[in-house]
């Protein structure tokens, strides 16, 4: 226990929540998709947690067989065969264009995890929400950053009053992202916000709720052909909370001065988070969480018990498993809530497409 001054909130670094309670009887998991995220995060997470994996399906049979052989799981011959596994949790690690047709073949009332984004745009997300309601699917979107050990601990610190009232959130990334790892992105019109910064927008919503609006500009880079790789955004929470995102995926000049961080300031304390997986992805670096607690006189590093990849995927699946068994009352990031994150993403793209307010020129008489 760290002793602090008068008016302080005691901080025991080891007491902050960093994991999600595990299901008592996990159901078998059926994975749709055999991309890099399945190999780098889903399967490592499920093995670490001891969650049973019934098998996987991908229309690219050779890719599916390669990953299945590495992780010693079954390969299904079709989506219908995969969907027929009784009592399964269905994990859609698929591109957004594939979500709806997979959800359509799942058993009515099934439990499913949908890879973000929830469709290519808000119209597609609305269609997926309607489909889930029509077929009574219990579905969540895989916004797993909320479940990363560092972010669970941050949320716990905020709940306990260690920061006071949050008044400032600043996300800053300047790094080099290997977009070639995701070949399905080629030719897509929406990349950076829809595929990457959507995590940060969802996290912010989870921390401080929905903003009134957003000002954003997102753009590509002349050195490659990915639609967008750079974003600046301001989320409007009125005159009390300042919230900004500054994202630059093209800082390809060595590790020095690359950053991947959140800075959260409150009325009484502050927190710093390093998102290590983004640096030298997918190998990554260790995550970090530091807190300057209310009434404290120094920054305190919180020893972390895991990393965003793969541990957040454990927590995300654990919540869905526990919801399916009745052990959790709330499904975090359910499609209804995820739709609101998609609405924020849509607003960001609409803002980026609008012309900026022009700067008034010097009057002619003064030139």
Describe this structure in words.
This protein is an alpha/beta fold and 367 residues long. It folds into two domains: 29-143 and 315-349, Rossmann fold (3-Layer(aba) Sandwich), CATH 3.40.50; 149-305, Dihydrodipicolinate Reductase, domain 2. It contains nine helices and 13 strands. The chain has an eight-stranded mixed sheet. Helix 5 (122-134) runs antiparallel to helix 9 (335-353). The protein is globular. The chain starts with 28 loop residues before the first strand and ends in a 14-residue tail after the last helix.
Indicate the proportion of strand residues. 15-25%
The H-and-E topology, N to C, reads as EHEHHEHEHEHEHEEEEEEEHH
* Total DSSP E strands: 13
Helix fraction by DSSP (H/I, runs of at least 4)? 25-40%
Number of helices: 9
CATH level-four homologous superfamily name of the largest domain: Dihydrodipicolinate Reductase, domain 2
**Name of the CATH architecture of the largest domain:** 2-Layer Sandwich
Low-confidence stretches: 1-6
Q: Which fold does the CATH topology of the largest domain refer to?
A: Dihydrodipicolinate Reductase, domain 2
- Indicate how many domains the architecture comprises: 2
User: Largest beta sheet, briefly?
Assistant: 8 strands, mixed
Distance between the termini: 66 Å
Question: Structural class, please?
Answer: alpha/beta
Q: Give the class-level CATH name of the largest domain.
A: Alpha Beta
Radius of gyration: 21 Å
Strand order of the largest sheet: 7-8-9-6-10-11-12-13
- Give average pLDDT, whole number: 95
Task: Report the principal-axis shape.
Answer: globular
């Amino acid at each position: 226990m760290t002793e602090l001054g008068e008016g302080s909130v005691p901080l025991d670094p080891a007491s902050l929540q960093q994991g999600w309670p595990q299901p008592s009887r996990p159901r078998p998991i059926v994975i749709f998709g055999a991309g890099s995220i399945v190999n780098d995060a889903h399967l490592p997470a499920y093995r670490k947690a001891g969650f049973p994996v019934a098998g996987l399906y991908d229309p690219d049979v050779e890719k599916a067989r390669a990953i299945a052989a590495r992780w010693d799981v079954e390969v299904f011959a079709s989506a219908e065969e995969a969907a027929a596994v009784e009592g399964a949790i269905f994990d859609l690690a698929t591109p957004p264009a594939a979500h709806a047709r997979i959800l359509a073949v799942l058993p009515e009332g099934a439990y499913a995890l949908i890879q973000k984004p929830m469709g290519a745009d808000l119209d597609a997300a609305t269609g997926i929400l309607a489909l889930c309601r029509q077929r009574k699917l219990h579905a969540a979107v895989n916004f797993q950053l909320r479940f990363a050990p560092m972010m669970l601990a941050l949320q716990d610190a905020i709940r306990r009053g260690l920061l006071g009232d949050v008044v400032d959130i600043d996300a800053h990334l300047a790094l080099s992202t290997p977009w070639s790892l995701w070949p399905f992105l080629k030719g897509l019109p929406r990349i950076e916000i829809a595929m990457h910064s959507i995590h940060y927008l969802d996290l912010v919503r989870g921390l401080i709720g929905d903003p009134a609006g957003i000002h954003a500009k997102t753009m590509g880079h002349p050195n490659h052909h990915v639609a967008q790789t750079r974003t600046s955004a301001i989320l409007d929470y009125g005159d009390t909370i300042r919230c900004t995102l500054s994202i630059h995926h093209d800082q390809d000049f060595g590790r020095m001065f690359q950053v991947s961080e959140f800075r959260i300031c409150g009325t009484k304390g502050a927190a710093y988070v390093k998102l290590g997986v983004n640096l030298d992805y997918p190998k990554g670096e260790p995550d970090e969480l530091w807190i300057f607690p209310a009434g404290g006189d120094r920054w305190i590093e919180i020893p972390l018990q895991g990393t965003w990849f793969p541990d957040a995927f454990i927590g995300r699946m654990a919540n869905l498993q526990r919801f399916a068994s009745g052990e959790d009352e709330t499904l975090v990031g359910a499609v209804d809530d995820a739709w609101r994150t998609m609405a924020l993403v849509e607003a960001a793209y609409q803002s980026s497409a609008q012309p900026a307010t022009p700067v008034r020129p010097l009057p002619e008489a003064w030139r």
